[in-house]
Amino acid sequence: MEILREKQLTVILLIERLEKLTNRKVKLELPLTIEEGEGQLSESDLDILRQFINYCLDNLKIKKIPVIELTIHREEDTTTGGYYPDENFIVTYTKNRHIIDVCRSIGHELMHADQVENDRLDVDGEDSAECPSEIEATVFAAKMMREFSKKHPEIYKEEE
Length: 160
Fold this sequence. Notes:
Elements: H1 2-22, E1 32-34, H2 43-58, E2 67-71, E3 81-84, E4 89-93, H3 99-117, H4 132-151
Parallel strand pairs: 1-2, 2-4
Antiparallel strand pairs: 3-4
Helix pairs in contact: 2-3, 3-4
């Protein structure tokens, strides 16, 4: 997994260099790592997720798009997602979760990436749902989900 992450980061750096040279935004496939196994998202859900991620990115000021990993393994005391700023890496737990919940988690973490890149993340050690960074990320994810679902009602389909 570490080698894959390094290759993805190399591609991202090359894209950034190309964008700087051409003064144009390059849109390629998202740096998305998908752990395979029972309980992982279906292909149709992955397609919805890719569209949702792009929708969120269109509403943020992120220059360095984080690598996003979808995992089916979760430690007992962890949340359903996390952003690791030093590696610009998002991990989201997907096993047996509805696509709406996964999208909301990733939207939340993408906002944290935006907060870090734009120097707005509270880093006073307060890991609370009431801190301003968490409130902003939660509100952003809910807003993106609401707007996206109006354009993509298929997101409410019943799970198979």
